[in-house]
Design goal:
By secondary structure, the chain is mainly alpha-helical. Helix content is 82%, strand content 0%. It has 21 helices and no strands.
């Protein structure tokens, strides 16, 4: 077990941090690539479609399959499948694990296939119930229904890709599974540029090119991972043994797993539902804003959770709760030292970031102002989102599935109440802020209850780390504000090149101030991340 990310030894207490940072770094570097491509995707979509009726229709049509994508790829599938698969792999070996893997794949094919067929049949009442206000705009509701039917098969593709990702993570493959979502972003970019101009000649709306891209991207996510799984020895078999104890355990956990990790996504669903009534553009502004927020969530929440869960699963398989506690504590510390500065940076730089990335073509200055305000409100909950991503799957590894279900229910109810109140007071910004506040409550309660399960999660170290990173982030904020003011006075022009130069200079100054402060404050996890980056750079150089 010495090679586990969460293991430790008296000889070198920093090695576990380095191993966890290395595993999270593998997932994080791949996620960074995917998220950067995601930003390029959003830039292309903003230029081509802006925040108009076509984009509003696409966002609502894709919300349901995208909800399942987020739950499966980064939530319920990992929480239900990875601990069970890892236990079979650790205690019984690969042949037994492969049998479980085949059973899960075939069960997903069957279940999601039925859901897709029913969804296509009942698309009209489903979409009408969700976006009834679209009927007031000629053709908007019908367009949303058509897009929904085209994109529903994405459910099956992403479920299978998530199962393959879970198997690879259990086998300690982190980079390629985290990179796989890049296929979706690449497909969207290519189809947007190549197919959008062709759609009217084919009798289709321009936005249909993006619906086609979703299916192509889903196939790409599965195709990217399959060769790695085959090299490990996996061979697909069309078997479905419903009496298999492992399969039954996974399926039983999937229900509470989905509910327990669904808070953020269901809250977004509620947000979209309420935003439909806020007029043209509201749904699109929130979509663009959360996609920007999803970069740090993916990098510093999901990637760390991806590294933590297999290690925790291995430790729980041999009842080593002390190792589980150490792994969770280090994962949380790593998350804090990057998410707290990310929150501060987004609060300060939301508008120039949105302006640089999105304000072109049909995306207007008014869209920039509205989207940036939503980014700032979402950013308030960044630590909460990531805490839930890390903590919730651990409950499933500990076979305490009821806890995250209860917490998720509380979060969803709180978000609904806050959304109804804040949307009246603040409009679209209120919806984003309600989601963020609900995420903070969910994350905070998750840590408190996880501490009860484990006895301790090294709360003193986490609190001390949080204080130090808050100090470092304050120094970073001063550097950013000073740099922005100086650059604006020196270069008042508003061309894209000048905007980019001002923004990147401010970010660079902030990162330098953060790194210097972290070094002076002796934040060990920050040193571990920097060392991992140096090793990667040296490896690339060789």
């Amino acid at each position: 077990m010495a090679s586990d990310p969460g293991s430790t030894s008296p000889e070198n207490s920093h090695k576990p941090v380095d191993r966890l940072a290395h595993s999270a770094g593998l997932a994080g570097s791949a996620t960074l690539t995917s998220r950067i491509l995601g930003l390029v995707r959003e830039t292309v979509l903003a230029a081509l479609f802006g925040a108009g009726n076509e984009m509003d229709a696409f966002v609502v049509a894709f919300r349901i399959p995208n909800l399942v994508r987020d739950l499966f790829a980064e939530g319920a599938m990992s929480a239900a499948f990875v601990p069970t698969f890892t236990r079979h792999l650790t205690l019984r070996g690969k042949p037994d694990a492969w049998r479980l893997g085949n059973n899960v794949l075939n069960a997903l094919l069957l279940v999601t296939g039925v859901v897709v067929v029913l969804g296509c049949i009942f698309a009209r009442p489903l979409v009408t119930a969700y976006a009834e206000d679209y009927a007031s705009v000629p053709g908007k509701l019908d367009l949303t229904i058509r897009l929904t039917r085209v994109m529903l098969p994405f459910l099956t593709l992403v479920a299978l890709a998530a199962a393959v990702m879970g198997m690879l993570n259990s086998l300690r493959h982190y980079f390629l599974p985290a990179l796989a979502p890049a296929a979706f972003n690449i497909a969207t970019i290519v189809c947007a540029l190549a197919l959008t101009p062709l759609m009217p000649a084919l009798g289709q709306p321009r936005i249909m090119a993006i619906a086609v891209a979703a299916i192509v991207g889903g196939l790409g996510q599965l195709a990217m991972q399959w060769p790695s799984l085959r090299r490990e020895g996996f061979r697909y078999q069309p078997i479905l043994d419903l009496k298999d104890p492992g399969l039954r355990e996974v399926l039983l956990l999937m229900g509470p797993g989905t509910l327990g990790l669904a808070a953020t996504q269901i809250n977004l669903l509620v947000t979209t539902l309420l935003a439909v009534g806020q007029g043209t553009g509201a749904v699109s502004w929130l979509q663009y804003a959360f996609r920007l927020i999803y970069l740090p969530i993916g990098l510093f929440g999901v990637s760390i959770a991806t590294a933590v869960l297999p290690a925790v699963s291995r430790h729980t398989a041999v009842d080593d709760l002390r190792a589980v506690s150490r792994t969770v504590s280090r994962g949380m510390a790593l998350m804090l030292i990057v998410n707290v500065p990310a929150t501060v940076g987004l609060l300060l730089l939301a508008r120039p970031i949105v302006q640089l990335l999105l304000e072109r073509g049909l995306f207007l200055q008014s869209d920039t102002i509205a989207t940036a305000a939503a980014v700032q409100c979402y950013a308030v909950g960044l630590v909460g989102y990531s805490t839930t991503r890390i903590a919730s799957p651990v409950f499933y590894a500990l076979r305490q599935s009821r806890v995250p279900v209860v917490l998720s229910t509380i979060s969803i109810a709180l978000n609904l109440m806050l959304s109804v109140v804040l949307v009246r007071a603040m409009g679209v910004r209120g919806l984003a802020l309600a989601t963020a506040l609900a995420a903070i409550v969910n994350g905070g309660l998750s840590i408190l209850l996880l501490r009860r399960q484990l006895g301790r999660v090294d709360g003193g170290h986490l609190a001390f780390t949080l204080v130090k990173i808050l100090i470092a982030s304050a120094v970073m904020a001063v550097a950013v504000v000073t740099t922005v003011r100086g650059m604006t006075a020196w270069m008042p022009a508003t061309s894209t090149v000048v905007q980019a130069l001002r923004l990147f200079t401010a970010i660079a100054a902030g990162l330098l101030a953060l790194a210097a402060s972290a070094r002076l404050l002796r934040i060990s996890e920050f040193d571990a991340l920097i060392e991992d980056v140096r090793r990667r750079a040296a490896a690339v150089g060789r």
